Structure formats: C-alpha cells, structure tokens
Automatic annotation (TrEMBL):
<protein>
    <submittedName>
        <fullName>Methionine-binding protein</fullName>
    </submittedName>
</protein>
<keyword id="KW-0732">Signal</keyword>
<dbReference type="Pfam" id="PF03180">
    <property type="entry name" value="Lipoprotein_9"/>
</dbReference>
<keyword id="KW-0472">Membrane</keyword>
<dbReference type="InterPro" id="IPR004872">
    <property type="entry name" value="Lipoprotein_NlpA"/>
</dbReference>
<keyword id="KW-0564">Palmitate</keyword>
<dbReference type="GO" id="GO:0016020">
    <property type="term" value="C:membrane"/>
</dbReference>
<feature type="signal peptide">
    <location>
        <begin position="1"/>
        <end position="18"/>
    </location>
</feature>
<comment type="similarity">
    <text>Belongs to the NlpA lipoprotein family.</text>
</comment>
<keyword id="KW-0449">Lipoprotein</keyword>
Amino acid sequence: MKKFAAALAVVPMVFGLAACGSTNSSSSSSSKKVTIGVVGSEKFNKTLKEEAKKQGIDIEFKEFSAYTEPNPALDAGDIDMNRFQHIAYLSNYNVSANKDLQIVGPTVIYPMALFSKKHSKLADIPQGGEIVIPNDTVNEARALKLLKTNGLVTFKNADVDAPTIDDVDTANSKVKVTPVDATQTVVGMESADGAVVNNDFLKDAGLKPADALAQDDPKTDPSAIKYVNLFVAQKDKADDETYKKIVEIFHTKPVMDVVQEETRGTAVEVNVSTDELRQSLANEEAKLRAKK
C-alpha cells in the first residue's frame, strides 16, 4: 500500500492505445454506444462525451438520484458501466448483494471534508454540538474516521477498521453524530454545527474546498486506495476494449482540466494499474465476507 500514495499524481493513465472493441460483442465501423450511469450531473461528463465521440464512441449518461441505484441498474443490464463509486462502496455492494461487478479502471480520488455554516474554525464547534454525516455504510465509516482524527469523536474500540455509528463512544465524544442520506448532508448543515459532505455535492451547494474545517488527505494516506473512484462494469465485460478506451479518454488533458475546474482542484488523478485495484477490491470483499 505504501506505493499507492506515491502513485497519486496528475499524470496520464497508461492503458495502451488498443483499437476499440464493440460494447455489445458485435463489430461495426459505426459509433459504438455506451450508456454510463452516474449520480448527479458534472460538466466533465459533456467533455468526456465530446472527446469519446472523436474516437468513435457514443456515450450516453443516465443520471440517478441516489447512490443505491446505479449498481442494480448495471446488474440488470440497463446500463453498460457506471461511474460514481469507490472500491470500498463497490466491495460492500458485491458482498451484501452477492454480486460480482468488476472494475474497468480508475478515475480520481477525492478528499472527504467537514463544513460548517455556523463556525469558521474546528475549535469553535461546541461540546455536545451536532455533526451530520452520510449514512451509507462506506461513507459513514470514512466520515467517522475523519471526525475521530480531528478529535470530535472517540470510538469504543480504537482499532476498528470500518466504524459505524454504533462504534462511537458517545459519553467520551465531543459531538453528537447524526447519519442522513448523503444527498441531505448539505441540508443538515442549516441546523447542525457541521456536516461531512461528499465531493459530489460541493459545487451545487456553493461550498468551497478551501472553507472546509477539516479534510482527509488521500495523497498521504496509504489506506486511501479503497477510496479510488471507478468505472465499473459487469464482470464478463470489464475488459471490453471500448470500456477501457473510455477510461483512457477520461484521463486525457481536455477531460482532466474540466475535472479540476469542477472540483476546484481537489481531485487527485490515480495512476494505479487496474490489476492492483482489482486486487484491492478482492481484499476488501474478503474482509467483509470474513465478518459475516
């Protein structure tokens, strides 16, 4: 894992410039259509679509309103790929749903941050204050770790790897933690002392990364590989050449420039092999199955 942190850099991905294959197992000289499920709408989707068109690939984006929707849609064959989740989320889905969705390739990794409309400094959050966090299993764990690192909560077991709200030692924690749907964390900021907000929602909420009271740092955290965001497909299509070409196009300068603009420079490009990411996925799934 030590080499992972060193591999996070804004550099082009190397997938090999292989000729594009068909997304539907049939060859054609016409454009190949690929439907990608996403949560929310980002400006860089348009750029990716434009750049892919130049390579003979017609991308259609299907927008979902919640994180729980794109994986079942992919399983059902309603979409060809999705791009919304990291390794930790995918491993949890595969194990809990008994599925085997697979990684096509990486996109970027985002820091997770704590914001507040009431306080300008972390130290200003009062004893007994309320912090809102995402309630899905994976983002809840990451948010709780962020709060622990910054002295806002204490765990009953200091060594817990994937903490849940039940692991919080409320009597010895500075704040009360309230899990809500990830889409509602921004709304929760209005009444709470702060909220841990996923990067997806910052721009629409008018939140600036520079205003975060605290955030984790994927560049220096060797365990951050589990939070690498991904293009994902059904297992038997994960090595489709067209799909891999889309990953490659995502990492070209025209797309990455817009990604950095959209994320206000917070996105960290990932230069890690797909094989290494798939091994990390397998490791995370094994840990989860061992807990069953």
